[in-house]
Design goal:
Elements: H1 4-16, H2 25-32, H3 37-42, H4 47-57, H5 69-90, E1 92-98, E2 104-110, E3 116-122, H6 129-145, H7 151-177, H8 184-236, H9 244-271, H10 282-309, H11 320-336, H12 340-347
Antiparallel strand pairs: 1-2, 2-3
Helix pairs in contact: 1-5, 2-5, 4-5, 6-7, 6-8, 7-8, 8-9, 8-10, 9-10, 9-11, 10-11
């Protein structure tokens, strides 16, 4: 880096230059470095400009591009301005790592709204491919992590990404300074850090997706509950007497199936066996969640009615009270199990339209619940 006296001497020469026509040190510096003019004029800088300015004033030992004494003086003068402009646009720099053996830097920023971001550039070579592969995976993960809606999850994920990225850059520095023959341990460490960041992101994204899906299920179950209560009130007031027992069973079975479908999903979420697409939008996840109770309600209503009609034989008890609880239980199971009800119906496809001969009684001698 140039000394203060060197800077004064260089800028004195620059201000005297008729070609530049600069009246101030900043004007002179911008005239030398036109790529940074937009940042100085707008007050907003990109990480590419910050990276350029950092290594322009203090080149890395194995840097692929060179700067003249005048350019280094301009970069040195503009660096504080560019850093402030970068922080104005992206938030305060919380963590940063700048390599000395190669032009590679990584920073983590935090805005006033507590949202965290990560930025990195690495001037890598062909021999760096094993480590660069892990750095690219971190770049992809960083883009995905921006979609996390909880500030704490995003912040933790960015911290893990920064830590892994810093380890990767440090390993590339070691390759250039110490020239080690074998970097398997360093690569293994970086890989483990990348995997740890990926696991955290997956868990955080699943939590967000589960939350949206559960909200949708709550709305769906609430809608079915309201519909069942409304039909029940009308039925018990005598408004739908002509439908009789079948409507009672339809209402109770639909509600039991909806509850069964909701409990099924919650149980699988607890076990970690319920899979969603975290990349889906909040609206999509909530719609899918809202549909699930309706699917359970459909099976919960249809399966008991098909049993009473003789299409499906379930072996219901003959006692009326037991039959009532039996069909409610069947409705709950039909909604709870995503396979049982569809499999049951598919096995009965060939028997549709072929009622039992010589008998008009209910299957298994079952009583019709009232």
């Amino acid at each position: 880096m140039l000394s203060d006296q060197d800077l004064r001497d260089v800028f004195a020469e620059m201000r005297k230059s008729a070609e530049l026509g600069a009246t101030s040190e900043q004007d002179a510096a911008v005239a030398v470095l036109p790529s940074l003019q937009s940042a100085t004029e707008t007050g907003f800088a990109t990480f590419d400009q910050l990276w350029e300015c950092y290594y322009g004033r203090e080149p890395a030992k194995n840097q692929h591009w060179e700067t003249s004494k005048v350019e280094r003086a301009a970069y040195t003068y503009l660096y504080p301005t560019i850093r402030r402009a970068f922080e104005k646009r992206n938030g305060r720099i919380i963590q940063d790592y700048w390599a000395t053996q190669l032009s590679a830097g990584a920073v983590r920023t935090e805005r006033d709204d507590k949202r965290s971001d990560f930025h990195a550039i690495v001037d890598w070579g062909q021999d760096d491919a094993p480590f660069v592969e892990q750095l690219i995976a971190l770049d992809e993960l960083e883009v995905a992590a921006r979609g996390l809606r909880h500030d704490s999850d995003e912040k933790t994920c960015m911290e893990l990404i920064f830590s892994a990225y810093s380890s990767g850059i440090d390993a590339l520095e070691s390759r250039r300074s110490n020239h080690p023959r074998d970097q398997k341990k360093e690569l293994e460490l970086v890989t483990k850090q990348v995997q740890a960041a990926k696991r955290y992101y997956d868990a955080a994204a699943d939590r967000v997706a589960y939350g949206d899906y559960t909200v949708g299920m709550a709305f769906g179950l609430a809608a079915i509950t309201a519909l069942a209560m409304g039909l029940g009130i009308v039925r018990w007031s005598g408004g739908l007497d002509r439908f009789g027992v079948s409507l009672d069973l339809l209402i109770a079975g639909a509600f039991a199936g909806a509850v069964g479908g909701t409990i099924s999903v919650l149980a699988r979420m607890t076990k970690g066996s319920f899979t969603l697409t975290p990349e889906a939008s909040r609206i999509s996840l909530r719609w899918m969640g809202a549909i699930r109770p309706f699917v359970g309600a459909t099976f919960g209503a249809v399966v008991p009615l098909l049993s009473l009609s003789g299409i499906v034989s379930l072996g219901a008890p003959t006692d009326e009270l037991k039959a009532r609880y039996f069909y409610l239980g069947v409705a709950f199971i039909a909604g709870f199990s995503e396979r049982w009800a569809p499999d049951l119906l598919s096995k009965q496809e060939q028997t549709l339209g072929q009622p039992d001969q010589g008998s008009d009684s209910k299957p298994g001698g079952a009583a019709t619940p009232k």
